[in-house]
Design goal:
Blueprint (H helix, E strand, L loop, with lengths): L1 H8 L24 E3 L2 E8 L2 E8 L2 E4 L2 E5 L1 E6 L13 H5 L2 E6 L6 E6 L27 E7 L3 E7 L7 E8 L17 E9 L6 E3 L6 E3 L3 E14 L3 E12 L4 E11 L5 E12 L12 H4 L1 E5 L2 E4 H7 L3 E12 L3 E10 L6 E8 L7 E12 L9 E10 L4 E15 L5 E16 L4
Antiparallel strand pairs: 1-4, 2-3, 2-27, 3-6, 4-5, 5-7, 7-8, 8-9, 9-10, 10-11, 11-12, 12-15, 13-14, 15-16, 16-17, 17-18, 18-21, 19-20, 21-22, 22-23, 23-24, 24-25, 25-26, 26-27
Length: 440
């Protein structure tokens, strides 16, 4: 009876929240005078265990300056103790500040420190949709710093300021802008870029010798590349670029891609974007090596001196051709849909999918937001160890009350009695909320 009462009561003792705009992904909170206040009391269901929740998760945007906080105190409903996994070391306390940023990607100056969502370098052939945190429990503090000085510029990223992570950078130049030819449409924006990215983590390149079974450590995983881009259209309403990328993974293979992207914002209410790449991959090469699932895939212990790793997947990769397609749709800057899919030709169960959906709180009855990343696709909608998923669905009871539920499928570390990581396990979170919503 006690368990039944808990199941019935907990979802009702949930969050009282004050906020302007609910977003599951900070990148949708654009610069300006926008504030998001999200906090209150509620409940979280993690792998079958119920926790009472105190949550404070505001986001502020003043001009180009943005700040996001994320304070969660979860109390075990059976023991009355605070969830130990939330606050174990200095990094756990630091992650209360989810991010601090200046501007957004593509601005002349962009800086972000904290959790990194869907980071990329250049056109994304080396790093695309990268997230530096495999789950809430494994969040890290990273840094992005970009500058565009018209004639030249750079993009940089470091994934883990408290440890050894991914260090990457891309420098680019628009050579014709040093001459009078820089004012010529199309060719004046011709761009050449160079990219270097390295994973400095101790497990970045570990593989198993198939003959002896011994662990082979190749040191840092390093990737180098160059790219060229030609803006076919560069207007306030329409922008399109034709580009070529080449990359080489040191001590492994190489690959290249030819692509075109398109962005149209000339309809007032709507924005439309599309991207298409044709990829040519040699043996032992994986495109967008640093992707949404990389922090999980880097190194997964499976037993004593046994593991699977991204380096082993790379070692076994065969030459292939393929394509990548992406489509984005925005309405009023609030309703956003993005879908991307990569498929190697002639290779089964090897596709990669990326989906994002967000609807505004101004809709009459419902709000919906979600994100889904999956690789090695056999069945698109089967959530498994190759998947990351979050989804939030809300129903407006009236003009100021919102009943919603958040579901997350991520990963957490499994440790032995000595604190050593011996594997990863999927982690499911369910957070029902009753919210009070108003604008100010």
């Amino acid at each position: 009876m006690k368990r039944i009462l808990r199941i019935l009561i907990v979802p009702l003792c949930v969050t009282l929240i004050v906020f302007v705009r609910a977003t599951a992904q900070e990148s949708m909170l654009q610069p300006g005078s926008q504030q998001l206040m999200d906090g209150g009391f509620g409940a979280t269901l993690i792998d079958g265990q119920t926790y009472y929740l105190f949550n404070l998760m505001p986001e502020f945007s003043f001009g180009k300056l943005g700040l996001g906080l994320d304070l969660n105190i979860r109390v075990n409903s059976q023991t009355g103790k605070i969830r130990s996994e939330d606050y174990q070391n200095f990094n756990d306390y630091l992650r209360v500040i989810r991010y601090v940023r200046w501007g957004v990607k593509q601005d002349p100056v962009y800086v972000r420190a904290g959790v990194l969502d869907y980071a990329q370098l250049g056109h994304g052939f080396i790093m695309y949709n990268y997230e530096n945190s495999a789950s809430y429990d494994l969040r890290k503090w990273g840094l992005e710093f970009d500058m565009d000085m018209n004639q030249f510029g750079f993009e940089t990223i470091y994934s883990d300021l408290a440890g050894r992570g991914i260090l990457g950078g891309r420098a680019y130049v628009r050579p014709l802008r040093f001459t009078d030819a820089g004012a010529i449409p199309v060719i004046g924006g011709f761009e050449v870029g160079w990219t270097y990215a390295a994973d400095l983590n101790a497990d970045a390149s570990k593989t198993l010798d198939p003959t002896t079974g011994a662990i082979v450590d190749g040191g840092a995983m390093r990737i180098m590349g160059f790219d060229v881009g030609l803006p076919l259209l560069s207007l306030s309403a329409v922008h399109s670029t034709l580009y070529y990328d080449y990359a080489k993974i040191i001590n492994y293979g190489r690959g290249s891609a030819v692509g075109i992207d398109f962005h149209f914002a000339g309809m007032g209410l709507f924005t439309l974007g599309a991207k298409y790449e044709r990829r040519f991959l040699k043996d032992q090469f994986l495109p967008s090596y640093f992707d949404a699932l990389y922090e999980h895939d880097r190194y997964i212990p499976t037993g004593t001196n046994t593991f699977v790793s991204k380096a082993e997947e790379l070692q076994a990769a065969k030459a292939a051709e393929g394509y990548y397609g992406e489509l984005t749709l925005g309405v009023l800057g609030a309703f956003n849909v993005l879908g991307g899919y990569y498929a190697p030709l002639g290779v089964q169960d090897a596709g990669t999918l990326h989906l994002v959906l967000q609807t505004p709180t101004s809709l009459p009855l419902f709000i919906v937001s979600g994100g889904y990343d999956k690789k090695d696709i056999g069945s698109v909608f089967k959530v498994d160890n190759n998947s990351l998923l979050y989804a939030q669905v809300g129903y407006k009871l009236n003009s100021f009350l919102l009943l919603s539920t958040l579901y997350q499928w991520t990963f957490t570390e499994v440790k032995d009695a000595n604190g050593n990581v011996i594997g990863y396990a999927t982690q499911r979170r369910v957070e029902p909320k009753l919210s009070v919503v108003f604008n100010f």
